[in-house]
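Dear H.,

Thanks for agreeing to be a second pair of eyes. The structure we're designing against is below in C-alpha coordinate form, covering all 311 positions.
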Protein backbone atom coordinates (compact mmCIF):
# COMPACT_ATOMS: atom_id res chain seq x y z
CA UNK A 1 0.00 0.00 0.00
CA UNK A 2 1.39 3.38 -0.99
CA UNK A 3 2.48 5.57 1.89
CA UNK A 4 0.01 8.37 1.14
CA UNK A 5 -2.87 5.94 0.68
CA UNK A 6 -2.10 4.40 4.04
CA UNK A 7 -1.93 7.85 5.64
CA UNK A 8 -5.29 8.77 4.09
CA UNK A 9 -6.90 5.66 5.56
CA UNK A 10 -5.31 6.29 8.97
CA UNK A 11 -6.43 9.91 9.18
CA UNK A 12 -9.91 9.14 7.86
CA UNK A 13 -10.35 6.45 10.52
CA UNK A 14 -9.06 8.84 13.18
CA UNK A 15 -11.57 11.51 12.12
CA UNK A 16 -14.43 8.98 12.03
CA UNK A 17 -13.54 7.95 15.58
CA UNK A 18 -13.44 11.61 16.60
CA UNK A 19 -16.91 12.06 15.15
CA UNK A 20 -18.30 9.41 17.51
CA UNK A 21 -16.80 11.04 20.60
CA UNK A 22 -19.98 12.94 21.50
CA UNK A 23 -21.97 9.72 21.86
CA UNK A 24 -19.39 8.31 24.26
CA UNK A 25 -19.55 11.50 26.33
CA UNK A 26 -23.34 11.54 26.52
CA UNK A 27 -23.78 7.80 27.07
CA UNK A 28 -21.25 7.72 29.92
CA UNK A 29 -23.77 9.56 32.07
CA UNK A 30 -20.98 11.47 33.85
CA UNK A 31 -20.55 15.22 34.15
CA UNK A 32 -18.04 16.97 31.84
CA UNK A 33 -15.40 17.22 34.58
CA UNK A 34 -15.65 13.53 35.41
CA UNK A 35 -15.62 12.61 31.71
CA UNK A 36 -12.46 14.61 31.03
CA UNK A 37 -10.75 13.35 34.20
CA UNK A 38 -11.18 9.71 33.20
CA UNK A 39 -10.41 10.44 29.58
CA UNK A 40 -7.09 11.84 30.76
CA UNK A 41 -6.50 8.91 33.11
CA UNK A 42 -7.27 6.14 30.60
CA UNK A 43 -5.64 8.12 27.78
CA UNK A 44 -2.41 8.54 29.76
CA UNK A 45 -2.27 4.77 30.33
CA UNK A 46 -2.84 4.05 26.63
CA UNK A 47 -0.32 6.60 25.34
CA UNK A 48 2.19 5.70 28.05
CA UNK A 49 2.12 1.99 27.19
CA UNK A 50 2.35 2.73 23.46
CA UNK A 51 5.29 5.11 23.94
CA UNK A 52 7.03 2.59 26.19
CA UNK A 53 6.55 -0.22 23.66
CA UNK A 54 7.92 1.95 20.85
CA UNK A 55 10.90 3.11 22.90
CA UNK A 56 9.92 6.78 22.70
CA UNK A 57 11.12 7.56 26.21
CA UNK A 58 14.71 6.94 25.17
CA UNK A 59 16.13 10.25 23.98
CA UNK A 60 12.77 11.91 24.55
CA UNK A 61 14.10 15.38 23.69
CA UNK A 62 12.34 17.27 26.48
CA UNK A 63 14.02 20.26 28.11
CA UNK A 64 12.72 22.09 31.15
CA UNK A 65 11.26 24.74 28.85
CA UNK A 66 9.58 22.35 26.41
CA UNK A 67 8.20 20.22 29.24
CA UNK A 68 6.74 23.34 30.87
CA UNK A 69 5.17 24.37 27.57
CA UNK A 70 3.66 20.90 27.17
CA UNK A 71 2.12 21.12 30.64
CA UNK A 72 0.75 24.61 29.90
CA UNK A 73 -0.76 23.33 26.65
CA UNK A 74 -2.23 20.45 28.65
CA UNK A 75 -4.05 22.91 30.90
CA UNK A 76 -5.64 24.50 27.84
CA UNK A 77 -6.45 21.12 26.29
CA UNK A 78 -8.26 19.59 29.26
CA UNK A 79 -10.40 22.66 29.91
CA UNK A 80 -11.08 22.86 26.16
CA UNK A 81 -12.61 19.39 26.49
CA UNK A 82 -14.63 20.40 29.55
CA UNK A 83 -16.18 23.35 27.70
CA UNK A 84 -16.81 21.29 24.56
CA UNK A 85 -18.62 18.58 26.52
CA UNK A 86 -20.65 21.25 28.33
CA UNK A 87 -21.64 22.54 24.89
CA UNK A 88 -22.87 19.07 23.89
CA UNK A 89 -25.31 19.12 26.79
CA UNK A 90 -26.44 22.73 26.31
CA UNK A 91 -27.06 22.53 22.55
CA UNK A 92 -26.32 19.40 20.55
CA UNK A 93 -23.31 17.46 19.38
CA UNK A 94 -23.83 18.77 15.83
CA UNK A 95 -23.96 22.47 16.64
CA UNK A 96 -21.20 22.29 19.24
CA UNK A 97 -18.89 20.50 16.81
CA UNK A 98 -19.46 22.97 13.96
CA UNK A 99 -18.93 26.00 16.20
CA UNK A 100 -15.86 24.30 17.69
CA UNK A 101 -14.31 24.31 14.22
CA UNK A 102 -13.79 28.05 14.38
CA UNK A 103 -10.44 27.25 16.06
CA UNK A 104 -8.22 28.32 13.12
CA UNK A 105 -9.61 31.85 13.26
CA UNK A 106 -8.73 32.24 16.91
CA UNK A 107 -5.24 30.96 16.16
CA UNK A 108 -4.86 33.69 13.53
CA UNK A 109 -5.97 36.30 16.07
CA UNK A 110 -3.60 34.91 18.73
CA UNK A 111 -0.68 35.11 16.30
CA UNK A 112 -1.58 38.71 15.52
CA UNK A 113 -1.88 39.56 19.22
CA UNK A 114 1.22 37.85 20.60
CA UNK A 115 3.54 37.60 17.60
CA UNK A 116 2.47 40.88 16.01
CA UNK A 117 1.77 38.99 12.79
CA UNK A 118 -0.10 41.11 10.30
CA UNK A 119 -3.44 39.66 9.20
CA UNK A 120 -3.71 39.94 5.40
CA UNK A 121 -6.88 41.49 3.99
CA UNK A 122 -7.77 38.12 2.46
CA UNK A 123 -7.76 36.39 5.82
CA UNK A 124 -9.81 39.18 7.36
CA UNK A 125 -12.34 38.56 4.63
CA UNK A 126 -12.48 34.85 5.38
CA UNK A 127 -12.83 35.62 9.09
CA UNK A 128 -15.89 37.70 8.21
CA UNK A 129 -17.27 34.82 6.14
CA UNK A 130 -16.74 32.43 9.05
CA UNK A 131 -18.48 34.83 11.43
CA UNK A 132 -21.47 34.99 9.09
CA UNK A 133 -21.51 31.20 9.00
CA UNK A 134 -21.32 31.08 12.78
CA UNK A 135 -24.32 33.40 13.10
CA UNK A 136 -26.34 31.20 10.75
CA UNK A 137 -25.27 27.91 12.36
CA UNK A 138 -25.97 29.06 15.90
CA UNK A 139 -29.66 29.52 15.19
CA UNK A 140 -29.89 31.35 18.51
CA UNK A 141 -33.18 33.11 19.10
CA UNK A 142 -33.76 36.00 21.53
CA UNK A 143 -34.35 34.62 25.00
CA UNK A 144 -32.92 31.18 24.13
CA UNK A 145 -30.45 31.15 27.02
CA UNK A 146 -29.64 27.44 26.70
CA UNK A 147 -28.50 27.82 23.09
CA UNK A 148 -26.58 30.97 23.96
CA UNK A 149 -24.79 29.14 26.77
CA UNK A 150 -23.99 26.22 24.45
CA UNK A 151 -22.65 28.58 21.82
CA UNK A 152 -20.49 30.28 24.46
CA UNK A 153 -19.13 26.95 25.72
CA UNK A 154 -18.23 25.84 22.18
CA UNK A 155 -16.50 29.15 21.43
CA UNK A 156 -14.60 28.98 24.74
CA UNK A 157 -13.47 25.46 23.81
CA UNK A 158 -12.29 26.72 20.42
CA UNK A 159 -10.30 29.56 22.03
CA UNK A 160 -8.66 27.15 24.50
CA UNK A 161 -7.81 24.75 21.68
CA UNK A 162 -6.23 27.59 19.72
CA UNK A 163 -4.18 28.53 22.80
CA UNK A 164 -3.03 24.92 23.18
CA UNK A 165 -2.02 24.82 19.52
CA UNK A 166 -0.25 28.18 19.80
CA UNK A 167 1.81 26.93 22.76
CA UNK A 168 2.48 23.44 21.41
CA UNK A 169 3.85 24.79 18.13
CA UNK A 170 6.71 26.25 20.16
CA UNK A 171 7.89 22.76 21.14
CA UNK A 172 10.43 21.17 18.82
CA UNK A 173 12.48 18.00 18.87
CA UNK A 174 9.91 15.97 20.85
CA UNK A 175 7.64 13.26 19.52
CA UNK A 176 4.00 14.37 19.44
CA UNK A 177 2.98 11.20 21.27
CA UNK A 178 5.06 12.29 24.27
CA UNK A 179 3.68 15.83 24.15
CA UNK A 180 0.14 14.43 24.16
CA UNK A 181 1.09 12.08 27.02
CA UNK A 182 2.31 15.02 29.12
CA UNK A 183 -0.87 16.94 28.31
CA UNK A 184 -3.31 14.23 29.38
CA UNK A 185 -1.20 13.25 32.39
CA UNK A 186 -1.27 16.88 33.56
CA UNK A 187 -5.05 16.73 33.36
CA UNK A 188 -5.30 14.06 36.08
CA UNK A 189 -4.11 16.15 39.07
CA UNK A 190 -5.51 19.31 37.49
CA UNK A 191 -9.07 17.97 37.33
CA UNK A 192 -9.03 15.85 40.47
CA UNK A 193 -10.33 18.70 42.71
CA UNK A 194 -13.30 19.14 40.34
CA UNK A 195 -14.09 15.43 40.08
CA UNK A 196 -16.68 13.78 42.30
CA UNK A 197 -15.37 10.23 42.45
CA UNK A 198 -18.34 9.19 44.53
CA UNK A 199 -20.75 10.31 41.82
CA UNK A 200 -19.16 8.04 39.20
CA UNK A 201 -18.89 4.95 41.40
CA UNK A 202 -22.36 3.82 40.37
CA UNK A 203 -22.11 4.50 36.63
CA UNK A 204 -22.26 0.80 35.73
CA UNK A 205 -22.07 0.51 31.94
CA UNK A 206 -20.96 4.14 31.85
CA UNK A 207 -17.46 2.96 32.71
CA UNK A 208 -17.22 1.24 29.32
CA UNK A 209 -17.92 4.56 27.59
CA UNK A 210 -15.40 6.39 29.80
CA UNK A 211 -12.73 3.77 29.10
CA UNK A 212 -13.49 4.07 25.39
CA UNK A 213 -12.88 7.82 25.50
CA UNK A 214 -9.42 7.26 26.90
CA UNK A 215 -8.35 4.11 25.07
CA UNK A 216 -10.04 4.73 21.69
CA UNK A 217 -10.57 8.49 21.36
CA UNK A 218 -7.27 9.44 22.97
CA UNK A 219 -4.87 6.50 22.67
CA UNK A 220 -5.79 4.89 19.34
CA UNK A 221 -7.01 8.08 17.67
CA UNK A 222 -3.84 10.03 18.45
CA UNK A 223 -1.60 7.20 17.24
CA UNK A 224 -3.50 7.05 13.95
CA UNK A 225 -3.35 10.82 13.47
CA UNK A 226 0.35 11.14 14.17
CA UNK A 227 1.13 8.23 11.85
CA UNK A 228 -0.91 9.92 9.10
CA UNK A 229 0.67 13.36 9.55
CA UNK A 230 4.08 12.10 8.43
CA UNK A 231 2.63 10.60 5.25
CA UNK A 232 0.28 13.31 3.99
CA UNK A 233 0.61 16.80 2.48
CA UNK A 234 -0.97 19.62 4.48
CA UNK A 235 -3.82 20.29 2.00
CA UNK A 236 -5.04 16.70 2.24
CA UNK A 237 -4.82 16.79 6.05
CA UNK A 238 -6.92 19.96 6.09
CA UNK A 239 -9.59 18.47 3.85
CA UNK A 240 -9.77 15.12 5.66
CA UNK A 241 -10.13 16.96 8.97
CA UNK A 242 -13.72 17.80 8.02
CA UNK A 243 -14.64 14.13 8.12
CA UNK A 244 -14.89 14.72 11.88
CA UNK A 245 -17.77 17.25 11.92
CA UNK A 246 -19.54 15.42 9.08
CA UNK A 247 -19.52 12.15 11.04
CA UNK A 248 -20.44 13.94 14.27
CA UNK A 249 -23.51 15.49 12.64
CA UNK A 250 -24.52 12.16 11.10
CA UNK A 251 -24.13 10.28 14.36
CA UNK A 252 -26.01 12.96 16.30
CA UNK A 253 -28.94 12.60 13.89
CA UNK A 254 -28.85 8.78 13.82
CA UNK A 255 -28.56 8.27 17.59
CA UNK A 256 -30.37 11.27 19.09
CA UNK A 257 -32.49 12.57 16.23
CA UNK A 258 -30.79 15.97 16.36
CA UNK A 259 -30.42 17.80 13.09
CA UNK A 260 -29.79 21.37 12.09
CA UNK A 261 -32.38 23.45 10.26
CA UNK A 262 -32.15 24.66 6.69
CA UNK A 263 -30.98 28.15 7.64
CA UNK A 264 -28.37 26.71 10.00
CA UNK A 265 -27.19 24.34 7.27
CA UNK A 266 -26.36 27.34 5.09
CA UNK A 267 -23.74 28.40 7.64
CA UNK A 268 -21.85 25.08 7.64
CA UNK A 269 -20.19 25.42 4.20
CA UNK A 270 -19.25 29.01 5.03
CA UNK A 271 -17.32 27.88 8.13
CA UNK A 272 -15.78 24.91 6.30
CA UNK A 273 -14.64 26.97 3.31
CA UNK A 274 -13.31 29.81 5.43
CA UNK A 275 -11.51 27.37 7.73
CA UNK A 276 -9.81 25.66 4.81
CA UNK A 277 -8.72 28.96 3.30
CA UNK A 278 -7.32 30.25 6.60
CA UNK A 279 -5.65 26.94 7.46
CA UNK A 280 -4.01 26.41 4.09
CA UNK A 281 -3.07 30.02 3.43
CA UNK A 282 -0.73 30.06 0.45
CA UNK A 283 -0.06 26.34 0.53
CA UNK A 284 -0.76 24.80 -2.85
CA UNK A 285 -1.59 21.20 -3.72
CA UNK A 286 1.88 20.90 -5.25
CA UNK A 287 2.87 19.04 -2.10
CA UNK A 288 3.29 20.76 1.19
CA UNK A 289 5.96 19.46 3.48
CA UNK A 290 4.56 16.76 5.74
CA UNK A 291 4.91 17.33 9.47
CA UNK A 292 8.06 15.68 10.73
CA UNK A 293 7.46 12.78 13.09
CA UNK A 294 9.42 14.39 15.91
CA UNK A 295 8.00 17.90 15.78
CA UNK A 296 5.75 19.46 18.35
CA UNK A 297 2.43 18.56 16.83
CA UNK A 298 -0.47 17.97 19.03
CA UNK A 299 -3.46 15.85 18.38
CA UNK A 300 -6.99 16.98 19.93
CA UNK A 301 -9.63 16.44 20.56
CA UNK A 302 -5.93 16.19 21.19
CA UNK A 303 -4.03 19.09 20.02
CA UNK A 304 -3.00 19.30 16.46
CA UNK A 305 -0.88 22.27 15.53
CA UNK A 306 -1.14 21.23 11.92
CA UNK A 307 -4.44 21.25 10.15
CA UNK A 308 -6.49 18.58 11.86
CA UNK A 309 -8.89 19.61 14.57
CA UNK A 310 -9.96 16.58 16.56
CA UNK A 311 -11.86 16.82 19.76
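And this is the sequence the design step returned. I haven't edited it by hand at all.
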Amino acid sequence: MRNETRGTLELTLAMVLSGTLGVFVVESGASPFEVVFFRCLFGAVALGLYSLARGFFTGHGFTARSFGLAVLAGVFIVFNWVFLFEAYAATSISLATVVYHTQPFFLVLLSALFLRERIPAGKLGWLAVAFAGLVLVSGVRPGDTASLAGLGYALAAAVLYALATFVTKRITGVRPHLIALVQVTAGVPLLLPFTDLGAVSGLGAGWVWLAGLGLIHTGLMYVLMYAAYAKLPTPKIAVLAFTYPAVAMGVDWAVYGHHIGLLQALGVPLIVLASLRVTLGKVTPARAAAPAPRTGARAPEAASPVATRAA
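Two observations from my side: The longest helix spans residues 64-90. DSSP finds 14 helices and no strands in the chain.

Warmly,
E.
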